[in-house]
């Protein structure tokens, strides 16, 4: 261990005074009770032998170093502290080994105790907080870790290689936080999780969990964060979760959910009593109308519902009805929504400059409804002249059927529009003609791009097609078929099991919690609705 200070008056060789070393502390008797090497830049093995010299430790932290070692051996080296050790933080290192490995302590003669994981032995003692996320630890989560009488309140095991299933939770559980994200866990979410009545956070995204989301999770009175994205969950989004008024973060994106109970459709009462600030239901198989209940959540700032099969128009709230009052990031792209964009969006803070005290950390606004079946005239609140200059907007509307002309001030959207007046109705004069498709000259699409004003100089000068033109059409058809196949392969690839890309922390400054490192990120580019 490094030398921190020297006591030259002792006459002995220099030694480390841990009582005055960083955040490490001693009690009044001079015994070291807190050993803190957080972010010390250590490149070494875990000090298995040296740690046993300390008998009174209650807190140990080696967080964010490059410490190596076997997790089972580390646990075994700490069992002598079981009566006192409350906090153990080994996160963000290079630890390996089996978390479920057996106790390796020759001084313990009880064969039943030796068959346990050493961490079960610690949890049966005083251990309250265990954090070993961001390592290379494998194996299963031992059932005894949550056994009756366990003192454990928080287990943070994100970003490892854990396998197996989530253990059953007993009724006497004191658990407050469980985090298993980024592992290889499979099987169902245990309904017994509702026995952890003190639970505030359950994070299990980026695993291989299957089955349904238990309705019993809605009975957790203190639940604030539920993160289940990028698994293989099926069935319904439980209606009971709508009644958890403490819930601030709900992320069930990138699963195979298909059912939304009635409580999620209705705007009355909706989620008017909810504390939700972040909701992500994107990347599932939900069908039906717009889930209007979310629009009533008073604190919802980020809402992702893209990549589903929602259809029909946006809700049309009454004058005194809440409609996304706190929204700043909204994505409903890649659905089947129809009708015009509602004027109600223009009445909320999203497109309005609010008082400066509410703008901290919220300088970016994202609005995505691309690739739906929306029609009508673009509303005035999208005009560059009306958008608050204090925000940076990213607006994606492409892939819809908005009417021409594109209003002045909306050229930055780079949209095409449909001139419906130019679409000539086909009226066959005879029964025989009804089976013939209209020629290109009899049916005009009236598509106009606001990116460039294409002149009419390229109009055909003759009525017939040359052989070169026919060959060009044939080539275009082949290219089109290849393009469709490529697009289909890309779409199928979007639902691959593990999703890379941005880390949550890199986006939270402006967008808050971002759903599961998705690769289809917001593109702040010229020509894609970027306006600053």
Automatic annotation (TrEMBL):
| A matching Pfam family | LRR_1
Name the source's superkingdom: Eukaryota
Name a single GO cellular component: membrane
The reply to whether NADP figures as a keyword in the UniProt entry is no
Which subcellular locations apply to this protein? Cytoplasm, Cytoskeleton, Cilium axoneme; Membrane
**Annotated transmembrane regions:** 471-492
List where Low complexity composition bias occurs: 458-467
Q: Which UniProt keywords apply?
A: Glycoprotein, Leucine-rich repeat, Membrane, Repeat, Signal, Transmembrane, Transmembrane helix
- PANTHER family linked to this entry: LEUCINE-RICH REPEAT RECEPTOR PROTEIN KINASE HPCA1, RECEPTOR-LIKE PROTEIN 55
Q: Per its record, how is this protein called by name?
A: RNI-like protein
Provenance organism:
Coccomyxa subellipsoidea (strain C-169)
